[in-house]
Structures are given as structure tokens and as C-alpha cells.
Amino acid sequence: MPKSRIRKKADYTPPPSRQATSIKLTTRAWVAPVMLALFLIGLAWIVVFYVTNSSLPIEALGNWNIVVGFGFIAAGFGVSTQWK
After folding, report:
1. Mind listing the pLDDT tens digit for each residue in 31-46?
2. Torsion sign across C-alpha atoms 33, 45, 43, 72
3. What pTM does this model have?
4. Helix 31-51 / helix 64-80 crossing angle, nearest 10 deg
5. Is pLDDT at 7 greater than 90 in this prediction?
6. Where are the beta strands (DSSP E) in 12-75?
7. What's the CA gap between 27 and 31, in Å, rounded?
8. Which among 30, 32, 46, 77 is most buried, taking Cβ atoms within 10 Å?
9. Residues of the chain by 3-state class (helix, strand, coil), percent to 5
10. Is residue 4 scored above 80 in pLDDT?
């Protein structure tokens, strides 16, 4: 019976180098200032409402001024999701 040939293993060859993928960097410099502005507007709205005994910012809204202030703050959190 004939002997089978012995196969030589190839020397180590490193895996092919990967090409660097370009990362798309979009400028979102507007996010932080808008977010902070919304936070501060909401906070100022609530503080002014309490300091002026419900006469400012909008007297007709009454206690709904608190909801408006928290709405600005919530919008700030919504904008913060765009921050990278």
C-alpha cells in the first residue's frame, strides 16, 4: 500500500490588514447651548412664578406655569439625546 504524502503546513500568515473606515463626524455644537438654555429657561420660569406669588410670568395660567417650566426642562432633556 503506498504511503500518503505528508502535507507541510504553511508558515504563519497574518490576516489581511483592515482598511480604516472613515467615521462621519457631524458637528453638533448647537446641542449643548440649546440644552442648557432650555434648562435655564425652565428653571427661571418656575423661580419667577414662585417669587412673584403667581403673578408672573403668565398670570392667566395659574399653577400651569409650573407645567410650562417643566416642559422647557423636558425639552432640554429631549435635546440632550442628540448630543454625541
Report:
1. 999 999 999 999 999 9
2. negative
3. 0.65
4. 170
5. no
6. none
7. 9
8. 46
9. 50, 0, 50
10. no
